[in-house]
Amino acid sequence: MSQNITRVIRLFTLLFLFFSSNAPAQTIPELLEKIKQITSSRNAVVGVAISGNDGKDNLAVNGNQHLPLQSVFKFHIALAVLSEVDKGVLSLQQKIKFEKKDLLPGLYSPIREKYPEGVSLSLSEVLNYTVARSDNAGCDMLLRMIGSPSVVEAYLHKNGITDVSIRINEETQQTHWDRQFENWITPNAANKTLEAFYDNKNKLLSKERHDFLLGILKGTETGQARLKGQLPKNTVVAHKTGSSGTSKEGITAATNDIGVVFLPNGKHFFISVLVSNSKENDQVNEKIIADIAKAAWDYFSTHTK
After folding, report:
1. Taking the model in full, what pTM does it have?
2. Residue-range domain boundaries for the chain
3. Dihedral pair phi/psi, residue 261, rounded to 5°
């Protein structure tokens, strides 16, 4: 009888260990509660996904909600373009000619500001303008080079990132308010893209192209008051922002920032914060992102193993 009882105990112990090791990672109660405190008084839809400790600590708020991408999609476009470079279809050294007609006056474009009559730039320069400085003329040129926005969507779907829609370019997105919602992502999918890129386990990009894009993301100039806004000075964040502007009715469709935040101990965490349908002003929208990033920083600075 005692041997049977011992066997049963061992069986239940093994089953417990098996299911425990294969169970989904639990949410982080303290951090989740802090984020709810940050967002509860704000008149906005806030989507959040955070992952750290090598994927052991995860949380999401509105994690599966479709929220407008805006310029965050330039990161996804860069992934698709660089995959073509890895195939040898494109080259980072090849020259891309911008004629004056390509530099639309209604779109934000540091390229147009510097070269109002047109210019020829290398693909590496165009990628840097597009991602680090969120240049819209550069973005639409890249989309024309690889075919269309749907090519980027197909690339992401093929690589397992399915909760994303990329259907229109920047010219359409910026000039037709209602159509911006055709380009959307979920916070969970945004974080999944960051992880797939940074960890590069499935070889989305060669090491050379991976390091090239990571360097651009670390040099992002836009949205300094967002993820980086309250972090310690000189904190390295590889990130991409997106902004919609505000409608006549006072609604801001998108104030976004997604990125990899590097901790002093050499570890990192992934964070995607998408603020949508907001009746708050720009400063408050950015502060929501900064407050959430600081709460995550505080948590992982003391809980990272």
Report:
1. 0.90
2. 26-303
3. -105, 130
